[in-house]
Specification:
By secondary structure, the chain is of the alpha/beta class. It contains nine helices and eight strands. It has a single domain (about 5-10, about 35-215), classed as Vaccinia Virus protein VP39 (Rossmann fold), CATH 3.40.50.150. Strands 1, 2, 3, 4, 5, 6, 7 and 8 form an eight-stranded mixed beta sheet that branches. Strand 2 (about 75-80), helix 5 and strand 3 form a beta-alpha-beta unit.
């Protein structure tokens, strides 16, 4: 299913929503949905950071809004940046009777329409694997975030020099290039632009693609 088709047709958005299960199912995953199990790692990482703090949360690419919905009670405010107006409408509809307002804007992950240091915490999960621009998107998250950046998606650690150039380029664009990320993040840490960073693994039934959660302690 091409991503543009999902973004432009409401029925395909709804099918995507069903794929991720119920909006409040991240905590227990009673259905044992393997997709939810994979995303639970991200959910609990963000929840542990938010819990007990009066933080504002931005999610880049919330889609139908599962993470924002599941995390809404642990935040001061929930914000989302989405490319698709159809997804924005779907996400808004989930919050209509929730007692919590969601603040959504339309835009792209490599040019966030927010001020520097506007949010306490920002989250992005499996977005740039569809559109590319991983490092540029992460830099934008760091720019608009004061405390913690959570960034997750496919990762590539073992590079095969015999692979064609096109495959290497695709890895740079659509996955977390761990070597490059570490090099650039170490430079940011050395200059004091960030405090620290670490990775967590996400389970995946496909051994070909590993998924990681990158947590950056910005500490501005």
């Amino acid at each position: 299913m091409k991503q543009n088709t999902v973004w432009k047709k409401e029925e395909k958005c709804l099918n995507l929503q069903k794929k991720f299960g119920n909006y409040d199912d991240f905590e227990e995953n009673k259905s044992k949905n393997p997709i939810i199990a994979n995303r639970q790692c991200v959910y609990f990482t963000v929840k542990d950071i938010l819990n007990g703090n009066d933080y504002t949360l931005l999610e880049v690419g919330p889609g139908p809004g599962h993470f924002l919905w599941a995390l809404k009670d642990f935040t001061k405010e929930v914000h989302g940046l989405e490319y698709s107006n159809e997804m924005i409408n779907l996400c808004n509809s989930q919050f209509e009777n929730s007692g919590k307002k969601v603040y959504l804007k339309q835009g792209t992950c490599t040019d966030l329409p927010y001020k520097d240091n506007e949010f306490d915490v920002s989250l992005q999960c499996d977005v740039t694997r569809h559109v590319g621009g991983c490092w540029e998107s992460l830099c934008e998250q760091i720019r608009v975030t004061k405390k913690y950046v959570i960034y997750s998606g496919p990762s590539f650690e073992d590079w095969d020099v015999d692979e064609p150039f096109e495959k290497e380029l695709a890895k740079l664009l659509f996955g977390i290039n761990v070597n490059r990320f570490n090099f650039e993040l170490d430079r940011m840490k050395h200059t004091g632009f960030i405090k620290d960073y670490y990775y967590k693994d996400r389970p995946n039934k496909k051994d070909i693609i590993k998924r990681k959660i990158l947590v950056v302690e910005v500490g501005k």
